[in-house]
Amino acid sequence: MDNKIYESSELPSEEKIYLKRDWLGWRVVEPYRNPETGKINWFNFIFGGKRGLFIMVVILLITGLVYLGTLEMIGQYKTIVNDPCMFCSDCQTVVNYALKNINRQITKGFEINESIINGLLK
Fold first, then answer.
1. I need a labelling partner for 10 at 20 to 30 A (CA). Which of 2, 38, 111, 118 fits?
2. What pTM did the predictor assign?
3. Quick check: is 108 in a domain?
């Protein structure tokens, strides 16, 4: 069926649309049982229609991504716990390099501040 908007009198005779009124107004429903034949429409019964299928796919996608992310974090944690030194074999050199750079920046800041203060005192 195309996306054209039909008035109820213009609907083809073979096309059936079921409406339900709730507190938001009228909406189209997809019943799980065909009212005319009484047979169960298994797609609507299991998924709740096309909208239900879409929502279920989105929920499964989000759940799967969270699961994979958790597995990755647990794997990283196990790697670190099993052998922390192997995980970060050059930690000492990295930390020393960072501390030296921080020290240089702090001492440069003090030298600049001392020169400003000495210039103001003269």
1. 38
2. 0.52
3. yes
Asked, for residue 100, whether it belongs to a domain, the answer is yes
Query: How far apart (Å, rounded) are the C-alpha atoms in residues 112 and 118?
Result: 10
Residue at 115 is within a domain? yes
Rg for the chain (alpha carbons), in Å?
34
Sign of the alpha-carbon torsion through 80, 82, 83, 87: negative
What percent of the chain clears pLDDT 70, i.e. is strictly above it?
A: 72
The count of structural domains within the chain is 1
Domain range for 119: 90-122
Whether 1 and 9 have beta carbons less than 8 Å apart is answered as no
Q: What is the pLDDT of residues 30-76, one digit of tens each?
A: 777 877 788 888 888 888 888 888 999 999 999 999 999 999 999 88
C-alpha separations of 88 from 77, 91, 96 in Å: 13, 5, 14
